[in-house]
Backbone:
């Protein structure tokens, strides 16, 4: 059994925070969708046929069950003092991206206001885990978003506003890499500060002994 290290404890806190944010997101989006469906405000763009109680209910239920499972896993590991698997952060990251993609489908496609949630997921993971996790997140996002566009515009091979979509993806890459770089720099600076603090403490201890 692997015991928790400082890094693992830090990742555990991060994943707990992400799980709590998911519950808030589920409540907010469910309330919004219920209001839209009740008042007949379904958007004309995108696959509006999917914007119904069955689709939203299935999506919210699946996401809630997945987040409950993640929450249970985190709590169990925390109480048992076990180390988190390195793949957990990538699994939760992919889960969030998949759900955002499924929300975008019936709410306007490339015009959906929920596209901004991609940015939230990218910033959240790049800031917490650095540039490597940020790049993994961006690559997964690229495949998922292209899949969304292909689904919405099939069988046509033409995409209106292709240049705009390329700019949007380029913007996401810029944000993800820059935030990941800043996170890495901050982590390096923290290490340097800790090293100098230890040197000062060692010198102070020696002077007191003398």
Residues:
């Amino acid at each position: 059994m692997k015991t928790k290290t400082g890094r693992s404890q830090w990742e555990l806190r991060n994943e707990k925070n992400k799980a709590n944010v998911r519950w808030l997101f589920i409540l907010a989006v469910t309330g919004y969708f219920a209001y839209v469906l009740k008042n007949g405000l379904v958007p004309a763009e995108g696959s509006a046929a999917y914007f119904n109680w069955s689709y939203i209910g299935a999506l919210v239920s699946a996401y809630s069950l997945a987040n409950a499972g993640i929450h249970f896993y985190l709590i169990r590991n925390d109480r048992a003092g076990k180390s988190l698997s390195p793949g957990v952060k990538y699994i939760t990251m992919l889960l969030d991206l998949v759900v955002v993609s499924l929300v975008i489908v019936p709410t306007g496609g490339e015009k959906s206001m929920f596209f901004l949630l991609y940015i939230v997921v990218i910033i959240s993971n790049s800031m917490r885990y650095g540039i490597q996790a940020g790049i993994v997140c961006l690559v997964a996002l690229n495949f998922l978003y292209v899949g969304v566009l292909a689904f919405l515009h099939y069988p046509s091979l033409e995409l209106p506003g292709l240049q705009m979509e390329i700019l949007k993806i380029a913007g996401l890459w810029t944000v993800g890499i820059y935030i990941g770089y800043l996170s890495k720099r901050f982590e390096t600076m923290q290490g340097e500060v800790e090293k100098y603090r230890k040197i000062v403490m060692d010198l102070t201890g020696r002077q007191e002994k003398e």
Summary: The chain has one domain: 6-209. Helices lie at 6-38, 53-80, 88-104, 116-129, 131-153, 162-209. The chain has six helices and no strands. Residues 126 and 134 are 4 Å apart (CA to CA).
